Amino acid sequence: MQIQAMGDDFDAVVILRDQKTVNAVDVSAPEEEDSDLRVMWRGFDVFRTPARQLLQAFSEAGYRIDDSNPEEPVVLDLTIAFNRWTSQEVPVDPEDGLPLYFTAALVSNENPSV
């Protein structure tokens, strides 16, 4: 079962495995640059910090990263999967041509890369 919450600045989906227990939460980046919505991790805004820099911060904090698919890296120890998909015109990373910032984050109680 999925419950979707949409606002002017955000889109979030809560995924329930057995209609009682939250299994995962999928949050999309705010569409407006000047949005007040922030998703923070240790002082980093996960949707406004360049993806490469954010992954480096996770790595420096001792978390293992599976970046075998650069469009969908996973912070294994925290079971957070990010993605950089978008059909919109956005700034791109000069090294890999992908969006500079993450466009969504999935937090799960299971490893999303399995």
List the helices and strands and how they pair.
Elements: E1 2-6, E2 11-16, E3 22-28, E4 40-41, E5 44-45, H1 51-60, E6 65-66, E7 74-75, E8 80-83, E9 104-108
Antiparallel strand pairs: 1-2, 2-3, 3-9, 4-5, 6-7, 7-8, 8-9
What this model shows, in words?
The radius of gyration is 14 Å and the shape is globular. The mean pLDDT is 88. 18% of the residues are buried. 9% of the residues lie in helices and 31% in strands. With 114 residues, the chain is mainly beta. The protein has 1 helix and 9 strands; from the N terminus they run βββββαββββ. The strands form 2 sheets. The protein has a 7-stranded antiparallel β-sheet. A two-stranded antiparallel sheet has the order 4-5.
Structural class: mainly beta
How many strands, what sense, and barrel or not for the largest sheet? 7 strands, antiparallel
Q: pLDDT average, as an integer?
A: 88
From N to C, what is the helix and strand string?
Answer: EEEEEHEEEE
Query: What would you report as the Rg, rounded to the nearest angstrom?
Result: 14 Å
- Strand portion, in percent? 25-35%
Number of helices: 1
Distance between the termini: 20 Å
Strand order of the largest sheet: 1-2-3-9-8-7-6
Give a quick set of tags describing it.
9% helix, two-stranded antiparallel ribbon, mainly beta, 114 residues, 1 helix
